[in-house]
C-alpha cells in the first residue's frame, strides 16, 4: 500500500504496496490465534482496554473510517448515535452476509484471518458498551462459518474477550438480509424483510435495543486504527475517503484477485498491478462496486476510486467489486443475468421492486433473444425510473441502475436486441476465460 495521496497519483507497484488487512494472508495457518499473535494480534485490543470508550469513538471518528459495506457512512459517527446508557443491553451486529454479485472481499478476509475481525469486534464492543456481539454470516459459506466458530473459541479460551459474548449466526442465504434491518429481523427469527425507518437501529435495533450494524471490513479495520493512530489512517486515501480497502478484481483480467490499496487509486493503476485486461482484448465496461452500481466504461479508467470520485462519474464505489468485461461480452446478456438475480431475491414487500423486477426480467430476456421491440426500450427506461428511489430498500435501486447506465452507454446493443439475438452478436465462446478465442460454445 502506498501512502501517497491520490493527488500525486504515483502508480503503485507490488513493491510499494504495504498490506494491512491482508498482511498475513500468505502466512502459514494464517487463520490461527498463534499466527495472528505472532503478527501483533490482539495488541490493539490490549491498548484499547486502556482507553475510555468515548475516546475510542472519537479515535475512529477522527480517522475518517467510512463504512466498507457500500454506503460509506462514517463509522465513528454511527457509533456516536447510540443513546446514553440506560442500564439495558446494547448490541453490535457484524454484517457478514456478503451476497452482491461480484463482491468477494469479506469472505476471503474471514477465511484467511478471522481473528482481525474478532479483535475489531472486541474493540468496537468496548467503544459502544456492548456485552453481546453477533456476526451474521451467509449460510452457504460453511467453511467460513466453521473457521469463525473456531476463532471465537480460540479467543474466548485464551481469555482475550473478557466478558464479551460473540455469537456467530449463519443465515439462510437471502440477499435481502444484507440490508441491515432485514438482517436484524432474520437474526430475531423472523422473515428477513426491511423495516420502516425511523426508528433506526441505533435507537431500536436488535430486540428493540440500541444496536450498531457494521460491515466486516469496517470492523476489521479498527485494530489497525488503534495501533497506527487516527492520523496514520487519515493520511491514506483521500481527504474525504480516508484509509485503505480491499479491491476485488474479477472477470477479464489477467490476474484476478484481492488488491489492497488506499482509496483513491484508479482502475488503470489496479489493472497495471493485475496484468491488465486479458491478452488480445480491450476493456469495454466495468462495475466499480458490484452489480448494483451503474456501469462505467474505458473512459473512466482514471476516475479516483473513492466515494466522491466515483459518484462524480455517475456511479457508486459500493463494495469495490470491480467486474471487468472486455469487448466480447454482451451488455444486454450481462444485465439480464443480474436482473434474474434481483428478481429472484426481491423479498416482495414493496410493489415497485416486486412488480418492477418481474417486468424488467421479461423485457431483458426478449432483448437477449432478439425478440424485443422499440417500445421495450422505452418501457425499460420507464420501469427502472419508477423503481429507482421508490422501493422500500435499496434492492430495487440495485436492479434499476444497471438498466439505466446500460441504456446510457450501450443503447445500440439494446436496439440490436429488437432483431438479433445476443448469442449471434456476442458468441458465448469468445467471452469464456478458458476457451480459445476462435472456439464457440454450442447454444
From TrEMBL:
NADH-ubiquinone oxidoreductase 51kDa subunit iron-sulphur binding domain: residues covered:
332-377
Q: Which cofactor does it need?
A: [4Fe-4S] cluster; FMN
Do you know which InterPro entries this protein is assigned to?
Answer: ComplexI_51kDa_subunit (IPR050837), NADH-UbQ_OxRdtase_51kDa_CS (IPR001949), NADH-UbQ_OxRdtase_suF (IPR011537), Nuo51_FMN-bd (IPR011538), Nuo51_FMN-bd_sf (IPR037225), Nuop51_4Fe4S-bd (IPR019575), Nuop51_4Fe4S-bd_sf (IPR037207), Soluble_ligand-bd (IPR019554)
Q: Which residues form a coiled coil?
A: none
Q: Which GO terms describe its molecular function?
A: 4 iron, 4 sulfur cluster binding; FMN binding; metal ion binding; NAD binding; NADH dehydrogenase (ubiquinone) activity; NADH dehydrogenase activity; quinone binding
| The organism's place on the tree of life at top rank | Bacteria
Which terms are listed as keywords in the entry?
4Fe-4S, Flavoprotein, FMN, Iron, Iron-sulfur, Metal-binding, NAD, Quinone, Translocase
EC number assigned by the record: 7.1.1.-
Function in brief: NDH-1 shuttles electrons from NADH, via FMN and iron-sulfur (Fe-S) centers, to quinones in the respiratory chain.
Q: Which family does it belong to?
A: Belongs to the complex I 51 kDa subunit family.
The name under which this protein is listed is NADH-quinone oxidoreductase subunit F
Provide the species name.
Litorihabitans aurantiacus
As recorded in Swiss-Prot or TrEMBL, the protein's gene is named nuoF
Amino acid at each position: 500500500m502506498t501512502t501517497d495521496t491520490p493527488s500525486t497519483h504515483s502508480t503503485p507497484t507490488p513493491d510499494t504496496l504495504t498490506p494491512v488487512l491482508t498482511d498475513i494472508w500468505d502466512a502459514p495457518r494464517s487463520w490461527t490465534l498463534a499466527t495472528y499473535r505472532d503478527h501483533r494480534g490482539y495488541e490493539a485490543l490490549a491498548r484499547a482496554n486502556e482507553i475510555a470508550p468515548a475516546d475510542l469513538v472519537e479515535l475512529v471518528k477522527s480517522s475518517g473510517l467510512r463504512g466498507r459495506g457500500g454506503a460509506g457512512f462514517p463509522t465513528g459517527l454511527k457509533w456516536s448515535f447510540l443513546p446514553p446508557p440506560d442500564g439495558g443491553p446494547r448490541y453490535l451486529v457484524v454484517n457478514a452476509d456478503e451476497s452482491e454479485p461480484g463482491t468477494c472481499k469479506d469472505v476471503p478476509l474471514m477465511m484467511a484471518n478471522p481473528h482481525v475481525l474478532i479483535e475489531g469486534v472486541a474493540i468496537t464492543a468496548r467503544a459502544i458498551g456492548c456485552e453481546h456481539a453477533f456476526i451474521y454470516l451467509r449460510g452457504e459459506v460453511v467453511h467460513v462459518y466453521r473457521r469463525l466458530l473456531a476463532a471465537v473459541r480460540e479467543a474466548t479460551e485464551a481469555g482475550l474477550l473478557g466478558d464479551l459474548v460473540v455469537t456467530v449466526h449463519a443465515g439462510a442465504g437471502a440477499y435481502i438480509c444484507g440490508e441491515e434491518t432485514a438482517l436484524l429481523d432474520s437474526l430475531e427469527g423472523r422473515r428477513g424483510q426491511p423495516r420502516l425507518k425511523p426508528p433506526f437501529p441505533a435507537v431500536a435495533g436488535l430486540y428493540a435495543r440500541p444496536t450498531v450494524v457494521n460491515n466486516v471490513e469496517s470492523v476489521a479495520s479498527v485494530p489497525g486504527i488503534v495501533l497506527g493512530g487516527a492520523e496514520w489512517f487519515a493520511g491514506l486515501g483521500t481527504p474525504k475517503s480516508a484509509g485503505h480497502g480491499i479491491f476485488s478484481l474479477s472477470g477479464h483480467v489477467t490476474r484476478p484477485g484481492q488488491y489492497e490499496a488506499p482509496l483513491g487509486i484508479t482502475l488503470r493503476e489496479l489493472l497495471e498491478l493485475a496484468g491488465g485486461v486479458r491478452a488480445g482484448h480491450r476493456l469495454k465496461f466495468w462495475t466499480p462496486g458490484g452489480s448494483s452500481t451503474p456501469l462505467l466504461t474505458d473512459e473512466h479508467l482514471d476516475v479516483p476510486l473513492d466515494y466522491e470520485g466515483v459518484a462524480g462519474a455517475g456511479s457508486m464505489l459500493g463494495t469495490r467489486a470491480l467486474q471487468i468485461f472486455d469487448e466480447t461480452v454482451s451488455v444486454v446478456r450481462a444485465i439480464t443475468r443480474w436482473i434474474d438475480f434481483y428478481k429472484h431475491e426481491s423479498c416482495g414487500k414493496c410493489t415497485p421492486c416486486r412488480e418492477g423486477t418481474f417486468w424488467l426480467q421479461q423485457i431483458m430476456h426478449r432483448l437477449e433473444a432478439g425478440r424485443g421491440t422499440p417500445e421495450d426500450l422505452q418501457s425499460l427506461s420507464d420501469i427502472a425510473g419508477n423503481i429507482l428511489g421508490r422501493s422500500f430498500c435499496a434492492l430495487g435501486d440495485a436492479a434499476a441502475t444497471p438498466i439505466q447506465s446500460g441504456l446510457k452507454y450501450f443503447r445500440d446493443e439494446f436496439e440490436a436486441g429488437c432483431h438479433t439475438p445476443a448469442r449471434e452478436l456476442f458468441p458465448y465462446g469468445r467471452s469464456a476465460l478458458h476457451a480459445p478465442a476462435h472456439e464457440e460454445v454450442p447454444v
